[in-house]
Design brief:
By secondary structure, this protein is α/β, with parallel strands linked by helices. It is built from nine helices and 15 strands. The longest helix is centred in the middle third of the chain and has 22 residues, at 96-117. Bound molecules: zinc ion (ZN) (2 copies).
């Protein structure tokens, strides 16, 4: 009765051959949830034994391109593999409706081609959009989802999510600096997944556009401090900026361990973490 977390993509916006874009799969109580839908999400879902048709919901932390750029692939693949219409709920912050409307406009020609070609595919992709605010999101099948405000300004609003099932809890924080909403959401969680940045390495790069990213991401140290304050069991580092050099894992882990006494996991694509008491 545990909660399973699979990091589908641990990459940042810069393309990397071994890291897909931001996306995390959560399986709990027979439900399959996708948090963010970055580059390559459907390929990594397949590697994790999932296809979009299995999804009960997609939840978006924020509307930065690296977290949503393959959402259309999730929706199209769910549609073409279906035997009957199956609405796919998409939860996200205010602005999600605008993103999905634009995406559907982009998809319209393809939808027309496929419907013209396949007699049995006589429905359009079915999506329900839920623009949500901090607070309860859903409570179905013994799986509860709660959202909290994160702080990724100037990206506003942005959200972090907590999934609870059978006494276990997992937090998907997305891109954020430490903030009160995140602290409260993380309290006592088994697993806390945080996108992280190393200011010491980013500052070495003489490109201001890259250096700009330091002010709206948690550093590894800050993520560890949030984990310690909230008393979580396991901190998972993902979406590392800059892309870690081969062999540097222990360096990243050491920075976190200096501030957090629990377990720290260095995320790679398809890293799998399960809450205790499996
Ligand atoms: Zn972002
Ligand atoms: Zn991001």
């Amino acid at each position: 009765m545990s909660i399973e977390v699979v990091l589908l993509g641990t990459g940042n916006p810069l393309p990397d051959p071994s890291r897909a874009g931001a996306a995390t799969l959560v399986r709990a109580g027979g439900r399959t949830l996708l948090f963010d839908a970055g580059r390559g999400v459907c390929m990594r879902m397949a590697a994790a034994g999932a296809v979009p048709l299995m999804l009960d919901a997609v939840l978006l932390t924020h509307l930065h391109s690296d977290h949503i750029c393959d959402l259309n692939d999730v929706v199209t693949t769910q549609w073409v593999m279906g035997q009957q219409p199956k609405p796919l709920p998409i939860f996200g912050p205010v602005g999600t409706r605008q993103v999905v409307d634009g995406m559907q406009a982009m998809m319209a020609l393809d939808v027309g081609y496929r419907r013209a070609h396949h007699d049995d595919l006589d429905w359009d992709p079915s999506i329900t959009v839920h623009e949500i605010s901090p607070g309860p999101v859903s409570d179905e099948g013994g799986v509860t989802i709660v959202a909290a405000a994160s702080d990724h300004r100037p990206v506003e609003p942005s959200l972090a999510f907590r999934v609870e099932h059978d006494g276990h809890a997992v937090v998907l924080a997305g891109d954020t600096v430490p903030c009160a909403g995140l602290d409260a959401l993380c309290a006592g969680a088994d697993v806390y997944v945080q996108t992280v940045l190393r200011p010491d390495l980013v500052e070495l790069v003489p490109v201001q556009r890259f250096r700009d990213t330091t002010d709206y991401h948690s550093s590894v140290e800050q993520a560890a401090q949030t984990a310690e304050r909230a008393g979580v069991s396991t901190l998972v580092l993902t979406h590392q900026i800059p892309t870690p050099a081969p062999g540097s894992e222990e360096e990243w882990l050491g920075l976190a361990r200096a501030h957090f006494h629990g377990t720290v996991v260095f995320g790679e694509d398809l890293t799998r973490v399960e809450t205790g008491g499996a």
